[in-house]
């Protein structure tokens, strides 16, 4: 705004194009010296230097999540965070431990939340087998199963789940 005013542009024109009141533009003009000295004293060339290893971890974590999703393998936040810590430790030292006690990168919950936002990740209700499950049958199952146990004379101690167990 100040540069445009120096070039002779009108207050009304600047206020209209900037979508601010004309009085605001006039106030800025009155404070021109303070504003320009403040800007001159601020280093605009200062850049945040990020650890290249952390940038690589973000890419690797994204690839990990994509790979697990394609294979329909459930993946939790703590699992991603732990893997990120291991990746960081291995990027710093060839045989680094996954403890993350170096004080630099902890893969904290805050880091993971920001990572999720930047990667547009969110919770999905159904993963893996759940996406193709028969929900109507699943709702009837507990009652039917209880009736079956009573009919056949089984005790509650004899009931067990083999859904995630490799029995041959």
From TrEMBL:
Principal location class: nucleus
Keyword Phosphoprotein: no
Gene Ontology CC terms: nucleus
InterPro entries: CenT-Element_Derived (IPR050863), Homeodomain-like_sf (IPR009057), HTH_CenpB_DNA-bd_dom (IPR006600), WH-like_DNA-bd_sf (IPR036388)
Signal peptide: none
Record-linked Pfam families: HTH_Tnp_Tc5
GO function term, MF aspect, one: DNA binding
Alphabetical UniProt keywords: DNA-binding
Compartments it resides in: Nucleus
Keyword DNA-binding: yes
Residue span, HTH CENPB-type domain: 45-125
Name of the protein this chain belongs to: HTH CENPB-type domain-containing protein
Taxonomic classification: Eukaryota, Metazoa, Ecdysozoa, Arthropoda, Hexapoda
